[in-house]
Design brief:
Elements (H helix, E strand, L loop, with lengths): L2 E6 L7 H15 L3 E6 L14 H4 L8 H10 L2 E9 L2 E2 L1 H16 L8 E8 L4 H14 L12 E3 L10 H21 L1
Parallel strand pairs: 1-2, 1-3, 3-5, 5-6
Antiparallel strand pairs: 3-4
Helix pairs in contact: 1-6
């Protein structure tokens, strides 16, 4: 069965980002694909050191659990990354994870190439577009396919549950998730 891995970059297991990720996963499952949510909550993701040992080892040598996600991505057909916006950009550990995943892919078998996915940003007031642009660099440099929606993949909300008040944002995310699933199915 085709599968999409969704990285939830929130430190809060029940926060707005986690709620949007759950909705995204539900829409993809409704389209007949399997989903797996990989939360960063509780993990301490280190930054890439550019040691290039992944070339020889086949995976990252930093021991913080990110290899588990990398192994899951090798088998997946899609990859979505959702991050809360902190001080106008994606959380640092989200970007550290993406940089390491990208380094391993480029240094080994290029496992990210032609996977379908894209970024999602959740914030109280602003920084959404900068965060999406920052995360898009990861998708583009790794030869990934990013489908669109009716607007940018962003939702407004501060306190847990406030994202549901942003009806347009939720509709945008639902269509994006549906488009990811439909494109994966079409490429099969």
């Amino acid at each position: 069965m085709k599968k999409v891995v969704i990285l939830c970059g929130s430190p809060r297991p029940k926060g707005n980002t986690a709620q949007v990720v759950e909705e995204c996963a539900r829409v993809i499952r409704d389209q007949g694909l399997e989903t797996e949510i990989y939360p960063l909550a509780g993990k301490k993701i280190e930054s890439c050191t550019a040691c290039y040992r992944c070339r020889e080892e086949g995976n990252c040598v930093l021991e913080d659990g990110l290899d588990d996600l990398i192994d899951r991505l090798r088998e997946a057909d899609g990859f979505i990354v959702a991050s809360p916006v902190y001080f106008g950009t994606a959380r640092g550990d989200v970007m550290a994870a993406l940089q390491r995943i990208g380094m391993v892919s480029m240094a080994t078998d290029g496992f990210l190439s032609w996977k379908v996915g894209g970024p999602i940003a959740i914030a109280r007031r602003g920084g959404h577009t900068a965060t999406i642009q920052e995360m898009l660099m990861f998708f583009f440099i790794n030869e990934m396919i990013v489908p669109g929606s009716t607007y940018w993949n962003m939702v407004f909300g501060r306190d847990p549950g406030e994202v549901w008040n942003d009806e347009e944002g939720i509709r945008t995310i639902r269509l994006f998730a549906e488009n990811v699933a439909r494109l994966i199915a079409r490429l099969s």
